Amino acid sequence: MVGKILVIGGTGSCGRHVVKHLEKKGQIVLVGARDEKKFKEMKFVKNTTFRKFDYTMKVTWKCALDGVDRVFLMALPLDDKPEKYIEPFIDELKQSQKIKKIVFLSALNAERFPIFKIETLIKDSGIPYSFLRPQFFMENLTDGFMKDELKQGGLTAPVGDHAIAWVSAQDIGGCATSLLLEESGKYDNQAINITGPAPITYPQICGLLSKYTGKNVKYNDVNPTDFEKVCLSKGMSLSSVQYLAIIFETVVENKTNTVYMGVQQLTGHQPKSFEVFIQENFASSSKT
Ligand SMILES: NC(=O)c1ccc[n+]([C@@H]2O[C@H](COP(=O)([O-])OP(=O)(O)OC[C@H]3O[C@@H](n4cnc5c(N)ncnc54)[C@H](OP(=O)(O)O)[C@@H]3O)[C@@H](O)[C@H]2O)c1
C-alpha cells in the first residue's frame, strides 16, 4: 500500500502537475515548498496539504517527512551545486528508513549537467529509485525562463535551426505519478527518457505562436556569447547562465532531437504536441 507522498517543489511548473495527477488517483499528497501563499493559489484539493520545506533549512526536513514513504525529488532550476543541500537531505531519507521510493526529476543528457551528481547520490543511497529524464519543458513558455521575453514578442536562443523534442510538464506529472504508485518494482532503479511526440525548432515554435496569437513572434538567433550577455542583462546569475549555456550546447550537438516513448510507456497515452500546447495556452490571447 502506498502511504503519504511528499512532492518537493509541488508548486513549481512541473511539481504542480505531479500533485494534480496524484490527486486524481486519490492519493494523500504533501506539497513541500517554502511559500504557503503560492500553495493556496494552486487550488489543490482539500486532502492535499502544505508542508513547509526548504532545502537550505534542515530544521524543516523532519516535519515535512513525517508519515511519508515516497518522495518526488527535484533539484532547483539551474543550480550548479545541487549536491550542497540534496546530499544531506538524501542522508536524512536514508536515516529515516521509511522511504520506499524516490522519483527524481532529472533531465535528458543528465550526464552533461550538475544534476547528474544527484542521480549518483540517489543510486548510492540504496533507496529504490526511478529517474525521470525529460527533455525541455513546453511550460518554459508559460511559467519558466522564456515567459517574460515572449511577452515582449520574441524568443532568443543560441541554437539556430537545431531541434528539441519538447515535452509538456503535464505529461511529466502523469509519468511521475505512474512511477510513484508502481508497487511491483517494475521501474525500480531505472532512468526513463521522456519527450514530446516530435522534435521542433525555434523558428517553427515562433511560427506556431504567430499563428495562434495573431501576432508576429520573432526568433532572435544569437551566438552563445551574445546569449550569455542577454541573460546576464536580465539579472540571471553567472552560474545559471553558464548552466544554460551547457544545456544549449547539447541542442547544437543534436542531442535533443530524439523522440523517446516514455510518456506512452508510463501513462498509456501519446504525449501532447507543441502545437496543441500552444493552442491551449496562447490561442485565446489572440482574441483579446
Ligand atoms: N525547464 C526545463 O526545461 C527542464 C527540463 C528538464 C529538467 N528540468 C528540471 O526541472 C527542475 C525544475 O522544475 P520546475 O521548472 O518545476 O521549477 P520551478 O517552476 O522553478 O519550481 C521550483 C519549485 O521549488 C520550490 N523551491 C524553490 N526554492 C526552494 C528551496 N530552497 N527549498 C525547497 N523548495 C524550493 C518552489 O516553491 P517555493 O518558492 O515556494 O519554495 C517551487 O515549487 C530542475 O531540477 C530542472 O533541472 C527542467
Measured between the Cα atoms of the first and last residue, the distance is: 49 Å
The biggest sheet, with number of strands, parallel, antiparallel or mixed sense and barrel status, is:
7 strands, parallel
| Count of alpha and pi helical runs | 12
Per CATH, the superfamily of the domain at 4-134 and 168-194 is NAD(P)-binding Rossmann-like Domain
Adjacency order of strands in the biggest sheet = 3-2-1-4-5-6-8
**Residue fraction in strands:** 15-25%
> Can you count the beta strands?
9
Return the average pLDDT rounded to an integer: 96
* Radius of gyration over C-alpha positions, nearest whole angstrom: 19 Å
User: What would you call the structural class?
Assistant: alpha/beta
Ions, cofactors and other bound molecules = NADP nicotinamide-adenine-dinucleotide phosphate
**Assigned CATH architecture of the domain at 4-134 and 168-194:** 3-Layer(aba) Sandwich
Helicity, as a percent range: 25-40%
Question: Helix and strand succession?
Answer: EHEHEHEHEHEHEHEHEHHHH
The CATH topology of the domain at 4-134 and 168-194 is what?
A: Rossmann fold
Q: What's the CATH class label of the domain at 4-134 and 168-194?
A: Alpha Beta
Principal-axis shape? globular
Ranges where pLDDT stays below 50 over 5 or more residues in a row are none
InterPro entries: Ergot_Alk_Oxidoreductase (IPR051604), NAD(P)-bd_dom_sf (IPR036291), NmrA-like (IPR008030)
Protein name: NmrA-like domain-containing protein
Domain NmrA-like: 3-238
Pfam families: NmrA
